[in-house]
Amino acid sequence: MNNIKNILFYFLVTGVFLYVMYAIVEKGELQEVNKITSVVTHKDSSGFDQIKSTLVHNLEHPLAILLLQIITIIVTARIFSFFFRKIGQPSVIGEIIAGIFLGPSFVGYYFPEFSHFLFPKESIPNLQFLSQVGLILFMFIVGMELDLKILRKKASEAIIISHASIIFPFALGMGLAYFLYENYAPDNVNFLSFALFTGIAMSITAFPVLARIVQERQLSKTKLGALVITCAAADDITAWCILAAVIAIVKAGSVVSSVYTIAMAIGYVILMLKVIQPFLKRIGDVYSKQDSLSKPVVAIFFATLLLSSYVTEVIGIHALFGAFMAGVIMPPNLHFRNIFVEKVEDISLVLLLPLFFVATGLKTQIGLLNDFHLWQVCGVIITVAITGKFLGSALAAKYTGQTWKESLTVGALMNTRGLMELVVLNIGFDLGVLSPEIFAMMVIMALVTTFMTGPALDLINYVFKEKPQELIDEDSPRKYKILFSFGDPERGKSMVHLANSLVHKYQNESTVSAMHLRLSNELHQYNMLELERENFRPIKREAAKLDLPIQTLFKPTLDIDKEIVETANEGSYDLLIIGMGPSIFEGSFLGKMIGITSKIINPEKFYNTITGKENIVEGTTFNSRINNIIKTTKGSLGIFIDKGLIKVEVVFIPILSLADAFILDYAHRVIHNNGARVKIIDAVGVIQNNIAFQNMINAIEQQYPMHLSFLSENKIDKEFLSQTDIMILSMDSWKRLMDGRSEWLINSPSVLVVKP
After folding, report:
1. Which residues, at least 6 apart from 410, have a Cβ–Cβ distance to it below 8 Å?
2. Segment 437-448, tens digit of pLDDT
3. Over pLDDT 70: what percentage of the chain?
4. Are 134 and 76 in contact, with CB atoms under 8 Å apart?
5. Cβ atoms of 287 and 293 closer than 8 Å
6. Neighbouring C-beta atoms of residue 137, cutoff 10 Å
7. Which of these ranges, 119-123, 354-358, 733-737, has the smallest mean pLDDT?
8. Strand, helix or coil at 579?
9. SS3 per residue for 481-543
10. CATH of domain 647-755
11. pLDDT bracket for residue 351 (50, 70, 90)
12. Residue 507's closest CA among 553, 539, 536, 547?
């Protein structure tokens, strides 16, 4: 009755007020006689033409153009970064090349009309301003990643190496400028400005990219990793201070004229370190124990960032230096830094920073290098850059007592330039110090020196091979090894229970390892150890409750699936367990549409097609990443579908083919180690018609007479499945259930699908 009242009231109120609004419009139109003297009509054009004209006008609106640019840039950057991660390169390389791809070097050259529509000249300033905001936020994050305490502890070695890695290439760069100035420097640019910018371009190191590579190579916890991170941090601080001075000199026109600017910059740095930093630290100490920060407190820190950037821009040493300094002086408290990185990082790295790559790409005209001599000059620039940075760092490292392998590794890592080089080059280009030809050559140099870091490290490791470890005594019993890889710690706790049910009474003859992988571009140097502890804390706590010894592996990586497989194969694990969660679109119309379109447009599927991995496991509902792991894993693989597993006391095992014989080993393990009750269904009469199968069953029954039972198919209903803890089955049985008895899977508890 109440529903009927509500409906009547709704229609009555809306009807009355719609009539009132209609009456107001009717009366109001009578007043148009005195207001409108001429009426523009479109009698000659059809309704479709009017709609078409409106749509064209809307498409060409500056806001629509900007939004289309951002969408295109983000999608292109994601695609290119995906493919470059697949070949073992940092995602930033893919994003830089995506920017060049969208610029005049490719899209503008082959599709000029589309390029003109997407990037009209009048829209470029808007794009550049947004990209500068992204850079300011990015430099703020870079500053926060630097740990000044580590710099103080390792100052002696780090400063020697980092300063040698700056002064050596800087001097070579100025020498190179002597030969380039006459033919390639822009008009009205003095030699000092050109030489200084060439020197700084040769000597910069990309700290963020270097830190990710150190993480991916598992060097973070080594003495070498700590040394090279410290060197890169010292290099970054020194290089940005030098760059600030160079900008001041360039804008002033001479060293003497720039003295006032440099003096103001020194005063600004002292103010930030001696006044602002203690103030921010006090705020950080007061609010360090709160789970979240109030908006006024957040506003203070963001105001510090923006004011710092504004002051350095006004002084004349660029807003990016101010953003960098604001990051450096942030409170050292990890809680604070994590909060601000979370607030800033996604909007900066995913949305705004790709705009900078495209803004760079629009300036990069590789087509200008249309002469063999120009490519020779480009080759000389690359050679000087590598020689100065690589040799300068390596020789200094060797002088401080490092081995040749460690010294060359330091040289290869310090030679990484990446995004930081592009920042310097864009500043030089915007100031008119670098010509378009030199700018294009320098961008290519930045790509080459960053791209070569991975292969150079591989070559160094190959040349300086470590001595093979001693062979394990063949008489010692081999341990049964389980590795489970988790993303979400809660799902990891369920995997602990599962692993425990398989080895609890065999702890002396078995090992259980928990692995957590993170994409390296999601990690930061300052919080990596804390993040590792945080993710493993629930796992260790759960293992302690079960009295299960557990080993932990934490690895940053470019490709999580590839790392899982390589770790499992190289470690010769007997069982690898991976998780598979439900899709967020499962069962929805959007999910079905995405499923259809993903078969047409999907970088992963396209990559699998061109690499010959398109048909991995036919007939399964596993996604492409699970299928990749299934194909490439050498040992046994368990695909765990967790539905809140907290105990393994009642286990359901369907037997659907002779190939399921190996599943009985898992039945034996959960009974012996966990005292579980195993309920088996011989759905198609496999056990009944096979003597070998029957003998295996009888052997388990004789040893554990009260723990094994058989079911008829008519008892497998929703109520029965709800009373079980886990279903263990082979991959072949999984496919058969998908085809004929999918209701078992829909109503099932947690599931472990095993590939032998």
Report:
1. 161, 224, 227, 228, 231, 393, 394, 397, 402
2. 999 999 999 999
3. 85
4. no
5. yes
6. 24
7. 733-737
8. strand
9. EEEEEECCHHHHHHHHHHHHHHHHHHHHHEEEEEEEEEEHHHCCCCCHHHHHHHHHHHHHHHH
10. 3.40.50
11. confident
12. 547
pLDDT, one tens digit per residue, over 27-51 is 887 777 777 665 555 445 566 777 8
The arithmetic mean of pLDDT across residues 125-147, rounded, is: 84
Fold that domain 132-463 belongs to in CATH: Na+/H+ antiporter like fold (1.20.1530)
- Per DSSP, 268 falls in state H
Lowest-pLDDT choice from 68-72, 134-138, 386-390: 134-138
Place of tokens 């690895």: 555
Q: Is 132-463's fold the same as 647-755's? A: no
Q: For strands 575-579 and 480-486, give the pairing.
A: parallel
Percentage of the chain exceeding pLDDT 90: 16
The whole-number pLDDT of residue 288 equals: 63
Burial degree of 738 (CB within 10 A; 0-12, 13-18, 19+): middle
Q: Of 363, 440, 353, 352, which is closest to residue 121 (Cα–Cα)? A: 363
Strand partners, 754: 638, 730
CA dist., res. 253 & res. 189, Å (int): 9
Is residue 169 within 8 Å of residue 388, measured between CB atoms? yes
The pLDDT tens digits of the residues spanning 585-604 come to: 344 433 443 344 444 444 55
CATH fit for domain 482-580+623-638, picks 3.40.50.620, 1.10.287.990, 3.30.930.20, 3.40.50.1100: 3.40.50.620
The string of DSSP letters for 661-693 reads GGHHHHHHHHHHHH--EEEEEETTSTTTT-HHH
DSSP state of 400: T
One-letter amino acid for residue 374 of the chain = L
Separation CA 329–CA 281 (nearest Å): 8
State the burial class of residue 333 (Cβ atoms within 10 Å of its Cβ: 0-12, 13-18, 19+): middle
> At CA 153, angle to CA 151 and CA 156, rounded to 5?
80
How do residues 359-372 score in pLDDT, each as one tens digit?
A: 888 888 898 888 89
Query: Residue 194: what pLDDT?
Result: 92
The first and second tokens of residue 428, run together, are 């030089």
Higher pLDDT, 83 or 622: 83
Where b means 16+ CB within 10 Å and e means fewer, 512-542 reads bbbbbbbebbebbbbbbeebbeebbebbeeb
Q: State how far the Cα of 558 lies from the Cα of 349, in Å rounded to an integer.
A: 16
Of 168-177, 522-531, 649-658, which one has max mean pLDDT? 168-177
Domain-wise residue ranges, the chain: 2-30, 132-463, 482-580+623-638, 647-755
Can you give 239-260 as a three-state secondary structure string? HHHHHHHHHHHHHHCCCCCCHH
Report whether pLDDT(180) > 90: yes
Query: Between the CA of residue 2 and those of 10, 16, 287, what are the distances in Å?
Result: 12, 21, 51
Strands of 610-721 (E only): list them. 636-641, 650-655, 677-682, 708-711
Dihedral, 355, 234, 526, 331 alpha carbons, nearest 10: -90
b/e code 377-413 from CB counts within 10 Å (16+ = b): bbeebbebbbebbbbbbbbbbbebebeeebbbbbbbb
Burial of 456 (0-12, 13-18, 19+ CB in 10 A): buried
CB-count burial class (<10 Å; 0-12, 13-18, 19+) for 300: middle
Q: For residue 147, what are its two tokens? A: 């740990």
- Whether 581 has a pLDDT exceeding 60, the answer reads no
Strands 750-755 and 726-730: parallel
Query: Which of 569-578, 597-606, 649-658 is the most confident on average?
Result: 569-578
Token couple for 133:
């905001």
Sign of the four-CA dihedral 20, 21, 24, 30: negative
Rounded to 5 degrees, what angle do the CA atoms 142, 276, 325 make? Answer: 20
